[in-house]
Amino acid sequence: MQRMPPRIRPLILILALAVAALMPLGIAGYDWPAFGGARTVGTNDQETLLTPANVGGLHRLFQVPLPAIADGAPVMLGGVATPAGTKDLLFVTTRAGQIVALDAHDGTQIWQHADGPGDCHINGGAAACYTTSSPAIDPNKQFVYSYGLDGYVHKYAVGDGTERSDGGWPELATRKGSDEKGSSALAIATATDGTSYLYAAHAGYPGDRGDYQGHLTTINLADGSQHVFNAACSDQADVHFFPSGQGGQGPDCDAVQTAIWVRQGVVYDADTDKIYTVTGNGLYDGAHNWGESVIALNPDGTGENGGPLDAYTPPNFAALTSRDADLGSTAPVILPPLPNSAIAHLAVQGGKDAKLRLLNLDDLSGQGGPGHTGGEIGPLVDVPQGGPVLTALAVWVNPTDQSVSMIVTNNSGISAVQVVIGSDGMPSLRPLWQNAMGGTSPVVANGVVYYAGAGIIHALDAATGNELWHDAIGGIHWESPIVANGVLYITDGSGNLTAYGV
């Protein structure tokens, strides 16, 4: 083997260091196309620039004001051809219904569109309608999607913001925008057969008032066709309900609530080739009304026999509803395959009742289909720090021993809960660490946990929970960070977007 000349080796080292140093300033190495990232929600397994060793050196790269508060999370796409040249772009959906495209390296606005509330007022009152949704980027990287306060999902060219108005776009997501709120982030999944779908979930506004039914609109990105799954009156498939009492304009449902308001909307599991979502308070009858339930659907948003493919409903569903202790305050987090586990496909479900449940994604109720209650694996586990969970859980795989943990944040603190496989192959949950610094939905990247709460953005060691860095930002409601290509981005309740790098 021929050795490299000694004088060449330093030059190559210098070049490698220069490339690494310039990467956050140039064309992005990977994208962040939807809430929670590209793969498992809340888990970034592509990040290499930020590490536990250097994250303490994070400093503010820029902070820019947005046209309005953005209560979700940005998404990011690299190498976009724009009128101003090739750019890495951030896209943000604001509470007021705007979508804004920003230069990811200095925050300069590239384009903006507004799909505002117009005459939409919450429950017919004085307050204007709003959204806490986040945008999503098409797998073809040509379009970005955003929920508008006109009740439609809109499709824009990533480079210049040109809106598409063909092929079914913009796509109807609700006929009752004054009662039905677009709470969740838009989500995208590509099924095993190669078809990509976009998901828009609906809930009600705070207070659980008005004529609303939680439902999921699934849009085929290839042809613009839709399926609608109504969590109340699920026997009425592929329809958006009309407001009650308006002279029989169209399909309606007497049941209300069953909101789908989890931050990520739906999660997709490639192993089962199903999507999973979860509902909040509402009627449960195990036939056509699915309050307080985790439901499984085909990737195209369809179920079977007038209901979901499968469902998990806790035995105390009625008590949860009466106490406003929604099971549907967080979606199931999909776990990676676990060696020696007797159950191949696992998820963990939290809730407002401060409990964690292990679920079998191949048989949610343990009884071979929907319409049954119970079915969780083993006993319920208390959230270590206590308190309801209204955030998306994240997964961390420890590279040292391949152990799997969930990161759970809420207003009471943050904790890591490890999955343990017993000698009989049965999984269980065991607290790993916790601290009292609460916050919103976390992201785990390269051994570091990032999350925001109480006007502070934190970075913790995923193995120990020890804080590695923090900085003051504006107030936080549901805003959550993203980490992409060595840069940390966060929106806040002061209407700013802030970027940090090392």
Give the helix/strand layout.
Blueprint: H1 8-22, E1 43-44, E2 59-65, E3 75-82, E4 85-93, E5 98-103, E6 109-114, E7 136-137, E8 143-147, E9 152-157, E10 171-172, E11 180-181, E12 187-190, E13 196-204, E14 215-220, E15 226-230, E16 267-269, E17 274-278, E18 294-297, E19 310-312, H2 317-322, E20 333-334, E21 346-349, E22 355-360, E23 377-382, E24 394-397, E25 404-410, E26 413-421, E27 427-435, E28 443-445, E29 448-453, E30 456-461, E31 467-472, E32 482-484, E33 487-491, E34 496-501
Parallel strand pairs: 1-28
Antiparallel strand pairs: 2-34, 3-4, 4-5, 5-6, 7-8, 8-9, 9-10, 11-13, 12-13, 13-14, 14-15, 16-17, 17-18, 18-19, 20-21, 21-22, 22-23, 24-25, 25-26, 26-27, 28-29, 29-30, 30-31, 32-33, 33-34
